[in-house]
Amino acid sequence: MSEQPAAAFQDLDPELLGDGPSKGLRETTLLSRDARLAGRPKLCSDCGLCDSFLKPEMARTCVFVRNQTEALEQRLFGRHRHDGDELRFGVYRDMQIARMKPPVPGAQWSGMVTTLGARLLERDEVEAVITAATMPGTRFAPRPILARTPDEVRASAGNKPALSPNLALLDEVRASGVKRLAFIGTSCQVHMLRAAQPQLEAELGLKRLDVIGIPCSDNVAYPDLVYFLDQVSKSPQTIVHYEFMQDFSLKMRHEDGHIEQLNFIDFPMDKLDGVFPSACLSCFDYPNSLADITIGYMGAPLSWQWVLARTERGEALLEMLRPDLEFQPASSAGDRRRGMPRYLQMLAKPPGKPPKPIRMLIAWLQRNRGPRGLEFARAIIEMKLFRNLQHVRERFGRFEQRIVPAHVYRALAPYADDYAETFGRPLAPRPTAATERRSGEARADA
Ligand SMILES: Cc1cc2nc3c(=O)[nH]c(=O)nc-3n(C[C@H](O)[C@H](O)[C@H](O)COP(=O)(O)OP(=O)(O)OC[C@H]3O[C@@H](n4cnc5c(N)ncnc54)[C@H](O)[C@@H]3O)c2cc1C
Ligand code: SF4
Ligand code: SF4
Asked: Cα(445) to centroid of ligand 3, in Å?
């Protein structure tokens, strides 16, 4: 590996290198970061890789420099996504709706993720687990840790819904000589980790890497999280747990146990502009498709979890949890496709906030007539793919070819006519000089 950081940036488009972090990263999660952030691309989710000995590899691994999903899928699964649900959910061998019986107190949902991480240590399948604990003195600021005991993993239960530089701990992995590692993290972190995996195996002698992925969307830098909670709650200081639910509402549990609920349609969008970092608005892997196993909730009914075992190892990890789980069949209701043309129009021209009675009606319709179960997961993933594609096209158009993976266009193809009508351009990417040159060469060869 090159020890010259400058070498890593040689093949970078100068426009990718901003003179500072993207808006959401002006202030970041842990310490004062100005020096740390120097030289990073404009799009950066603070995954931690650039804080580690792998910083010189940034240009080769970072999803915001070049999205390598297709090549990584080929390496991991030996194939690309099939048409149908895999275009949205990623490659998988098994999908289950399950939950811990009983649920783990303090967990985000039922505690499957931390129970699995702890079990890997209990059984000596791994020597350490990278997970996000809580920064002392805060409720929701993440503190990445290299957990060496099951209790340390269990204590990291619950979301710290802010950007967390988990990959910075690769330095500690190297220093401590860990050869069998489990990693719990978000999709962007998993992309960088998978891209760096051959190097970790060759240079650190890493023999096992179990990747437990959580779905992730619309993450924020910690100061922006504090601001967000100030906007949406009547008592932000007393929130102990919150989640964006499958019934189109944000539910916040307070210290005294009461639940505050805000329907998505009632969000003060005018005050939230700029809260989400450009990186998260340019992210195309909501379901964490390069993990061995993804454990989330969005394809499941309320209080259940949605599990996708993607690799053979992922199936083995699910088996390890099975004795503690209860299951129910996957279900699906509603038709997301009917609402998508209207969603595209709203993306193109955001409407003002409707009056309260109309908002109440919309919330009722979303809850009772909207997509549910797997159809909810399909709907929300497609909506985020569209929103993020538009963000890239409007703000970082020149990077589209590098940072938007090919499956996005395949997943959204059923709406290509609606897209063209609404945005006055095709859904398919515009040919670049390079692609035109290549197809010209191919024609000449033929
Ligand atoms: C910002 C964010 C957005 C999410 N959005 C969705 C979504 O839209 N749909 C969906 O299905 N699931 C989403 N999830 C995942 C979901 O909320 C749960 O974390 C997941 O279902 C696991 O629940 P659990 O009870 O099994 O986890 P627990 O056993 O409670 O363990 C939670 C695990 O999450 C890890 N973690 C917490 N915060 C972070 C962080 N900031 N970065 C990296 N790792 C972290 C901890 O290390 C811990 O291991 C999101 C998670 C985050 C952090
Ligand atoms: S996202 Fe990660 S790899 Fe990419 S620039 Fe930021 S810290 Fe580095
Ligand atoms: S939304 Fe995407 S880029 Fe942002 S933290 Fe989550 S996985 Fe990373």
From this structure: 42
What are the structural domain ranges in the chain? 5-221+279-328, 224-272, 335-434
DSSP, residue by residue, 245-301: -TTSEEEEEETTS-EEEEEGGGS-HHHHTT-S-TTGGG---TT-TTSSEEEESTTS-
Among all ligands shown, which has an atom nearest to the Cα of 225? 1
Residue bearing the CA closest to ligand 3, atom 4: 280
Span 147-200, pLDDT tens digits: 999 999 999 999 999 999 999 999 999 999 999 999 999 999 999 999 999 999
Give residues with Cβ within 8 angstroms of 273, minimum separation 6. none
The pLDDT tens digits for 73-94 are 999 999 999 999 999 999 999 9
Q: Does the CB atom of residue 388 touch ligand 1 within 6 A?
A: no
- H or E stretch at 439: helix 433-445
First to last CA, the chain: 41
Phi, psi dihedral angles at 305 (to 5 degrees): -115, 155
For residue 187, the Cα-to-chain-centroid distance in whole angstroms is 4
Q: What is the DSSP letter of 53?
A: T
CA distances for 123 relative to 101, 119, 128, 208, angstroms = 20, 6, 12, 14
How far does residue 196's CA lie from ligand 3's centre (Å)?
18
Nearest CA to ligand 1 atom 42: 164
Q: Contacts from 314-319 at CB under 8 Å and sequence distance 24+?
A: 314/93, 314/94, 315/93, 315/94, 317/116, 317/120, 317/210, 317/212, 317/292, 317/293, 318/94, 318/96, 318/293
Q: Which residues line ligand 2 (CB under 6 A)?
A: 40-41, 44-47, 49-50, 58, 62, 64, 192
Q: For 324-348, what is the mean pLDDT?
A: 95
| 434 burial type by CB count under 10 A (0-12 exposed, 13-18 middle, 19+ buried) | exposed
Ligand 3 pocket member 186 (CB < 6 A): yes
| Closest ligand, as measured to the CA of 12 | 2
- Cβ atoms of 167 and 49 within 8 Å: the answer is yes
